[in-house]
Amino acid sequence: MERPVLIAGDDGVPVRVREELAGAGIPTVSICSSKNVRAARAAVAANAKVVIGDVATAATWEQAGIEHARSIGILGEDDLANLSAALQVADETTDLPIVVRLFATDLADGVEQMLAPRGTVLSEIEVSAPALIQAALSGNEGQRVTVGGRILEVAEVDKDDPGLVVALCDVEHPTEVLPTREQLGENHVLGLVDRAQVVQGARGALPASVAQRHHQRAPQRPHRPSNTERARAALSTIPGRAYVLVAIIAIVFTIGTSVFAISKHLDVVDSMYFTATTMATVGYGDVNLLEAPDWLKLFDIGLMAVSAVLLASVLAFVTDQLVSSRIDRALGRFPRPRKDHVIVCGLGKAGARVLQGLHDLGVPCIGVERNPEAVGISLARRLEIPVVFADGRAPGTLASLHIDHARAVMALTSDDLVNLECALSARKHNPTVRIVMRIFDPRLAERLDRGIELDVTRSVSALAAPSFSAALLGRTPAQPLSLSNVPLRVLETRIPQNWPHNGERIRDLHEHSELRVLALDGRWFPADDHQLQAGQAVSVVATKEACDALTAR
User: Fold this and answer.
1) Is 32 or 243 the better-scoring residue by pLDDT?
2) Which among 130, 150, 128, 6 is positioned nearest to 66, based on CA atoms?
């Protein structure tokens, strides 16, 4: 009997890892703190063994069968508890591989050294964050995978593009994945593309129409802003009330100069000089109204009063700009971006890592969070990213964040329902904004996509599960491709002896399975009539189920 993998943890990550291992035919034992937690319920529903106990005690691990285990995954939510359990297991075993889940990545190297040479430390947030950020910035396109040392990218291209390695879906039907060439219509396709075209073989030159589109989309030389553009950018940073104040001062100055000049008591130049000194409250006495008519003196009194108010307003404005900005920064309040920004709802572990990634890329962003103690709040203050303490579902919250001009909205809380409500609210305010929603259940995500056409949904645990399961089995992880909520994988492995498709021709395999062979024994685009044999090195793109069948032993 094959030795089981022990998986400790209560939330979604151990659930997804157990499902990954079960799909590969690996028996598992789930260790949970209570029979009512998500991981325990899911394991019971799948008829998998469950042990209820404290992972910090040796008795719990003995009950789980640690002496017969293949490897151990300590995948709880609490870093300190995971570290304690890992040290406990390390004391009880000498050679079992240990995979530890840690959010604090700065501890990863130290913990791996403590558990060396059999310890591996992973963070589901670090694994999944690049996919979340990429989804916000470019949707399904732009995802990259490495196959045979070559980088392939998901892009929308013509079906005859010689750089196209494999079509993942028709643009008009994104949930119908891995179509055969006969099933492709006249529309463009989303496919894995070799931008360098080093694997194109003898497919011929790029069609003229496609080449023209590629040329139009080719990166241009960086645009150097002109002096006029720089001036406009500088003026755009000045608050609107400053323009109002300047306009009022100009109007009062014009009226004062005109009245003094029309009165014929002063000439035009003296009128301008006298008005300026009066408004600045620095009258020198060299020009005065001692001999002027009474009505002009009364006008000057009014001008003095108005000027005093204007001077106070100018001083208040300058003080506000100098002092309040420092106070705002000290309190964590920073200027909000007004266009081409990303709104991140939920600043937990995932939201914090996404904020960091967006900031590193120079993308303006703003956070929305209800809990002032959330993990991402201190990070946002350190990075000077504005945060609004509000509910993203509430009417007006997203509108106040200039969603009409936003680049994307990301709903990244740990509650699927809250994320869905935020996504629907964002869609209501701006039907064209890209929405990235975090959701636990990928099957629910697919149904939601079909029903309400959300742009991109991603599951943090589903994105990270292949890396965790591969580490537990000592294998190279499959590379996930999230495409319109249909999870695909890019996998490099050797064909096992018990694979049911051994002996089949590649053409026949492509016709009746959700698997496409990219390379065979290092050769790209193997012949369609080539028969697949056990032991051959194969690179494929396939659904999760097809990858599970290929890796099952």
Assistant:
1) 32
2) 6
* Ramachandran angles phi, psi of 382, nearest 5°: -65, -35
Q: Which domains does the chain have, with CATH numbers?
A: 5-122 (3.40.50.720), 233-330 (1.10.287.70), 342-458 (3.40.50.720), 465-551 (3.30.70.1450)
Residue 205 has pLDDT above 90, yes or no: no
Q: Are the CB atoms for 6 and 29 separated by under 8 Å?
A: yes
Tokens of 374: 């959330």
pLDDT band at 211 (very low <50, low <70, confident <90, very high): very low
Of residues 316 and 345, more confidently modeled: 345
Burial 52-66 (b: 16+ CB within 10 A, else e): ebebeeeebbeebeb
Distances, alpha carbon 221 to alpha carbons 86, 197, 215, 233, in Å: 52, 23, 13, 21
CA-angle at 33, arms to 30 and 34, nearest 5°: 95
- Comparing CA positions, the residue from 159, 153, 161 lying closest to residue 172 is 159
Token match 């909000």: residue? 336
3-state SS string over 109-127? HHHHHHHCCCEEEECHHHH
Token code pair at residue 310: 């204007």
Handedness of CA 26, 32, 38, 44 (dihedral sign): positive
Asked whether the beta carbons of 253 and 282 are under 8 A apart, the reply is: no
CA distance linking residue 58 with residue 52, whole number of Å: 13
Measured distance CA(117)–CA(96) in Å, rounded: 10
Distance CA 109, CA 106 (A): 7
pLDDT band at 281 (very low <50, low <70, confident <90, very high): confident
The contacts of residue 392 (CB under 8 Å, 6+ apart) are 343, 345, 346, 368, 398, 411, 418, 422, 425, 426
Helices (H), 238-368: 240-262, 268-279, 294-319, 325-330, 349-360
Over the stretch 416-457, which tens digit does the pLDDT of each residue have? 899 999 999 998 999 899 999 998 876 676 666 666 666 677
Look at the block and give the residue holding tokens 């508890």. 81
Residues 489 and 110: their CA atoms lie apart, in Å, by 31
267/271 Cα distance (integer angstroms)? 6
Q: What is the pLDDT of residues 38-76, one digit of tens each?
A: 999 999 999 999 999 999 999 999 999 999 999 999 999
